[in-house]
Amino acid sequence: MKRKAHPTRIGLFMLGALALLVAAVVVVSGGRVFANRERAVAYFDGSVYGLQLGAPVVFRGVRLGSVVGIGVVYQGQPGRYAIPVELQIDSNAIANTGTPGNRATTTVADLVGQGLNAQLSTQSLLTGLLYVDLDLRSTPGQPVRRRSDGLTQIPTLPTTLQSLQKQLQNVDLTQLLGDVSAVAAGLRQLVGNPKLAGTVDDLAQSGAELRQLLAQLNQRVGPLGDALQGTLGSARQGAEQWGAAVARVGSAVDRVGQAADRVSGTMGRFDRLADDAAPALASVRRAADDLALTAAELRRATSDDSGLMQQVERAAQDMARASRAVRDLADLLERQPEALIRGRTANP
Fold first, then answer.
1. CA Rg, the chain, in Å?
2. pTM (2 decimals)?
3. Nearest Cα to Cα of residue 64 among 96, 32, 21
4. Rounded to whole angstroms, how far apart are CA atoms 340 and 342?
5. Beta-carbon neighbour count of residue 327 at 10 Å?
6. What values do phi and psi take at 332, rounded to 5?
7. E strands in the chain
8. Do β-strands 130-136 and 56-59 pair in parallel, antiparallel, or remain unpaired?
9. In the 8-state DSSP scheme, what is residue 249?
């Protein structure tokens, strides 16, 4: 006897299966089923070979979406075609900072205003597959353009390979190869020139002579240094002797000054002599004044910057003799004041 199926159980079973199916779809899609998607378009001028539907759209290493459409558009000029690549981007992946419950979503148009552009990059050198790389490479504030269907247009940049190819197109390869050939021919001629071998030999000989000269200089540096040290020692000794001579000259000048002072004192005593001796005493006083003036001039002449130091010794000796003569005259007048009138009397 067959058991009758219970409708309630069948309904619960169907609801459970549907719930499991929805959960599986959500898990497999990574939550993208309920994502807020935004479509945009990017026009590329060069080849997009290697870019496939479903290729990732990446912003600084973070996947934001995928490629959902690739086409070709004629731009109205012969040979001018553009390749529009439609992108589907998860707007919730880029959000402004704020409280978790109050975050404003950043749109593609906002990013374009901040300098966003698109560039094709290689996923793998082995497979040659491409992906769309988004980044803020342009100057902020650029105008936002939209296609006729309302899709935001993202500016594009050529790939590195395309930029290199464009630069190579402007290079005159024929002239470049000709220049390289001319340089190679010049080098070949220079290497095969017999004068080059002679020049190399001359350089080697010059190097040997230079090494020999340096060796001789090293041998002579020691004796030369010793001789220089001896010369410096002699110069130092001569300077010390010169300083001692200057000191002796200064001392002699001081003694001459002292003698002149004594002569001046003696002349004061001569004033008390007889009136008939006044002319002679005046002459003696003038001689003493001249002697003092001479001593002062000698004192100035013995300065460090004077050029008369070689004659100072002889002048000091003359001054010493003159001082002794004046001293003898003063002693004579003290003993015999009348000698100025009668002359010198012989000693008994």
1. 59
2. 0.43
3. 32
4. 6
5. 14
6. -65, -45
7. 37-44, 56-59, 62-70, 73-74, 81-90, 116-122, 130-136, 145-146, 152-154
8. parallel
9. H
CA nearest to 156, candidates 54, 51, 53, 63:
51
Nearest to 63 by CA among 148, 145, 132, 130: 132
Looking only at the bridges linking them, the beta strands covering 130-136 and 116-122 are antiparallel
Distance separating alpha carbons of residues 304 and 211, to the nearest angstrom:
49
**Do residues 115 and 108 touch, judged by C-beta distance below 8 A?**
no
Cβ neighbours, 10 Å, residue 296: 14
The yes-or-no verdict on residue 1 having pLDDT over 50 is: no
Any idea which residue has 């050029």 for tokens? 307
Q: What gap in Å lies between CA 346 and CA 336, rounded to an integer? A: 11
Q: Which residue has the tokens 């199926």?
A: 5
Whole-angstrom CA distances from 108 to 36, 44, 92, 172, 253 are 12, 18, 11, 42, 106
First to last CA, the chain: 196
What percent of the chain is helix, strand and coil (3-state, nearest 5)?
55, 15, 25
Name the token pair of 74.
Answer: 């004629």
- Taking the CA atoms of 327, 330, 334 and 336 in sequence, report the sign of the dihedral they define: positive
81-138: pLDDT as tens digits: 899 999 999 877 776 544 455 555 678 888 898 999 999 999 888 888 999 999 998 8
Structural tokens at position 39: 């479509």
Question: How many Cα atoms within 13 Å fall on the side-chain side of residue 110?
Answer: 9
240 HSE (CA, 13 A, CB side): 5
Q: What are phi and psi of 304, to 5 degrees?
A: -65, -35
